[in-house]
Specification:
Length: about 290
Amino acid sequence: MNIAIKNVTQLLVASVLSLGLVACNKNSTSPDKTTDTEKTVSTIEQIKKNGVIRIGVFSDKPPFGYLDAQGKNQGFDVEIAKHVAKDLLGDENKVQFVLTEAANRVEYLKADKVDIIFANFTVTPERQEVVDFSKPYLKVSLGVVSPKAKPITDVAQLKDQTLLVNKGTTADSFFTKSHPEIKLQKYEQNTETFDALKDGRGAALAHDNLLVLAWAKENPNYTVGITSLGQHDLIAPAVKKGDKELLDWLNQDLEKLAKEGVIQQAYEKTLKPVYGDTINPKDLLVE
């Protein structure tokens, strides 16, 4: 009898444990369901919930994105980004500017460090495979700046010489593919690259023509001997690949801002003081 009672007791204990495990398993599915629900929250909903939009901008690329003497974000890209924040959240101050460099713009989007990139981002087929670009707002090509004492006016002059570029830029890509005979010295930040030119570490520096034209005006011992190189490209903001809702909203907002004259106003405030009458705004802004 004792053996029989022992067996019955063991069966009862096993049954209770089995029921407990089933109950635990049922309860354990609840957090997963919550997670699934959270995953369906759109970027726009999350931005509104957070009460701030994170926008990646440059810190060292005047007049497009830079920090002024007070450490505040300034520039053409920054002006437009503020209006985007205002239209989405009702207040241009509800933007968190995340400082980025050319080489990590894509990674910042992929890693959800930013919601939108507004960092003088040139549209290329390679980049279109990994991010989604919105409506463009600027036209650009490459330019080459060099010392006035030894001006570079033709790419052929750069053969067997060192050309300074920024990692991950269109200049980097263009010269790597089209001119392997030119030695490239690459830097992460714009300030590093331009300092290298001043120090004589390269015969010239290649970057967006709008940037080198602006820099040469501030540094009269240098000249942009090649003002337009390669194809004319477009500059546009970008969002994470596949974020259609945010992309559609951004496209509509940029179209609205253009019609309201906001992009023209941003040009007048940030770019015209630099370029003056040397550049026709119609040759720069995308209608």
